[in-house]
Every structure is written in C-alpha cells, then in structure tokens.
Design a protein that fits this description.
Elements lengths: L61 H22 L2 H7 L5 H44 L4
Length: about 140
C-alpha cells in the first residue's frame, strides 16, 4: 500500500473495490507514460472516445438486399406474364382470311387470356412461397440484440 495525496495524513491508500461496470472500454489504454499522461484521457485510447476507431460501424444488410432483388425479379416476371401474349395470338392466325381469321383471333385471344391468368396466379403462388421461405430463413438466422 502506498500513500495517496488525497488520503488523510498517515493513512495508507487502498483503491476502491473492483466494479466491472466502471471499467474502461475494451482495448483502451489504462496506464500511460508519465510524460504523455493528462487527466483528460486517463484510461482511454489516444484521441479520446471509446476505442471505436471513429465512425460507428453500420450493420450490413445483405439479406435485405437479397430480399429486394428477389421481389424485383418476381415483379418483372409477373408483369411479363401478363404482357407477352399478344404476339402469340398474331402469329397463330397468319394466312387466314374472313370468318376463319376472326374465329381464329377470338379463340387465340380466349386461350391467351386463360393462359395469362394461369401464368399470373402461378407466378403469384411461387412468389408467396419464396417469400415465406425467405421469412423463415430470416427468422432463424437473425441475430437477437
């Protein structure tokens, strides 16, 4: 035990009890060279602060970006399933005239509408299933604070 200037005269100095909540941040300098020591930065790294090294690190949101890319791809697929049927109707009825042409166009239009509806709901169903799977993966792998 040594004598501390703030201790009453003649009594030895004993440090306060150890408290883990009052420790300096991890990686900080506790003892410094006497020539560079100042009362402003005792127990903290040079430059002040909490040892974080400047700007706080942002959380990487890789999963969010993957999720958004999947959503964009499904949206493009959904829109293309509705708009890509006009060319198929025109190509089917080439070379026909009169009532045969109108009957062919009516039948091809009805078939294209049915096919578009089936494709739309199939893409919508797959989109929902992929979102459910991605949601379960997110819930299982996320870090809890």
């Amino acid at each position: 035990m040594t004598h501390h200037p703030d201790a009453p005269s003649g009594q030895p100095y004993s440090p306060p009890p150890w408290d883990p909540n009052r420790l300096p941040p991890p990686g900080s300098v506790i003892w410094e060279d006497a020539s560079t020591m100042s009362t402003a930065n005792i127990g903290y790294p040079p430059g002040g602060g909490d040892g974080g090294g400047g700007k706080p690190k942002r959380k990487k949101r890789v999963f969010m970006w993957v999720f958004l890319v999947v959503q964009a791809l499904f949206l493009i697929w959904l829109i293309s399933s509705l708009t890509g049927q006009k060319d198929a109707v025109d190509a089917t009825c080439t070379g026909l005239t009169g009532t045969d042409l109108t009957d062919c166009q009516d039948a091809a239009g009805a078939g294209a509408a049915v096919g578009s509806g089936i494709a739309f709901f199939l893409v919508l169903f797959l989109w929902t299933m992929v979102d459910v799977i991605l949601g379960v993966i997110y819930m299982v792998t996320r870090r809890r604070a």
